[in-house]
Amino acid sequence: MYVILLLVAIVLAIIYYAFVEPVTYWHKNGVQQHCPLQIWKHNLVSLVQHQPIAEVFQNFYNSFPNARYSGIYQFLDKSLIIKDVELIKKITIKDFDHFVNHKLFSIGEVLWERNLFSLKDDKWKQMRSILSPSFTSSKMKMMFNLVSDCADQLIDYFENKLKSASCVTIEMKDVSTRFANDVIASTAFGLTCDSLTNPNNEFYLMGREIIPQVGFWKNLQLLIIFNLPVLAQICGFRYLSKKASKYFLKTIKSTVRSREQRKSVRYDMIHLLLEARERSKDNLTDLDITAQALLFFFGGFDTVSTLMSFMAHELAVNVEIQNRLQKEVDETLKQCGGAITYDALFKMKYLDMVVSESLRKWPSAIVTDRVCSKAYKIPIEKPGEIPIYLKKGDVVWIPIYGLHRDPKHFPNPERFDPERFSEENKSELNADAYIPFGAGPRSCIAIRFALMETKLFFFKLLSSFDIVVVKQTAIPLKLAKVSFQLTAEGGFWVGLKPRKQK
């Protein structure tokens, strides 16, 4: 009997010290958190994909509504989720020197570890200073025609389709991904693709392969890569496809050598990176250039195409908004003499409002993070708080999706309402709660390019077509459970019809 009791006690002790004690850290340090049972329930829900990841984080955000921050755990990995916008500002801007880096994994994938997002401390600062001149408005104007050509290619494709049909049903995520692929091929790799006419072109297929895919086993691998990188290396798990990584490195090397030999100039990202190499004291290697081009690829291939997909859905189900936007498109086209320019595109106020609201309601990044690089104190500001001391290596999460869906910041957040961003209403918004591209010096470096690509895509599309609801359109839209990204269950189905009046 005593032996059995002893064994039970040992088992309970193991369970406590393995699974309970590690997830009480924040509670012991004066931070509100869920009880261990709820924490493991949330972890299980994330693992088996019982709930969309955005909703999981939304539940975290909504917990402890009066708290400026709360403790969360991704399995045994602890983080502090920051909900107070003033504290977020301090962490990302004022006290940036305490929170310079992202939490990253290291499993020996050089192309991932050398891109701007992954670099740390002085290496990040140096690369950012090298790349920043490549993303100014003047540089974006240089690439405008390349993006415009890709958009014209897309319009021609659907105009041909509509010669024999009154409406074409499309899955917008697939279409926008192929468009983004062609834009990246042209602007970042110096290649010409037409992924709608030639759906199985090598560049597109390699792009599909290098982007981490969704599914239970892949997501499990990603969780291990993010949280247990040593185990991931032992198991041979990779974040990026080895085959695709070799392809893109070979493509960049070939393009760079060709341009150096021919002394040719094409105003694309390769040209800008080669210019950056000439400006920098420590020359960018081909590996560095490929790493930045691939980061550009990730941002365009998945993130921008996701924005386009959600925006297309909102325009289809909000016909009045689409009609008003088309009116602005027509007026702008008339003012430009039939050919849109970069400056004219960025002067379109209602288009900017619609894009901004799409980014508000459907931010491509659900959360972003920062790692504490030196001891940091969060002082008391509300009754019941105690000072919180963060140590080097502690992680804070900034809940972009939660902030954007918080009625304190955006009343009636489920409603798609571009008027939030009108000149009259902008002053009433808490601008610090709107961070679709991140916040502070580590925000997305390619904001201008992402906006140019998105706005040009819809300008061309809406000048020729109506985006309409079809039988397959999901109303209301449901989020997919099988992805760590924000995407729709069953896809983004809409129809394209030729416009009757322009």
TrEMBL record:
Heme binds at residue 444. It is found in: Endoplasmic reticulum membrane; Microsome membrane. Its cofactor is heme. It is a peripheral membrane protein. GO terms for molecular function: heme binding; iron ion binding; monooxygenase activity; oxidoreductase activity, acting on paired donors, with incorporation or reduction of molecular oxygen. It comes from the Eukaryota. One of its GO terms (cellular component) is endoplasmic reticulum membrane. Keywords: Endoplasmic reticulum, Heme, Iron, Membrane, Metal-binding, Microsome, Monooxygenase, Oxidoreductase. CDD domains: CYP6-like (cd11056). Transmembrane segments: none annotated. Belongs to the cytochrome P450 family. This is Cytochrome P450. It comes from Aquatica leii.
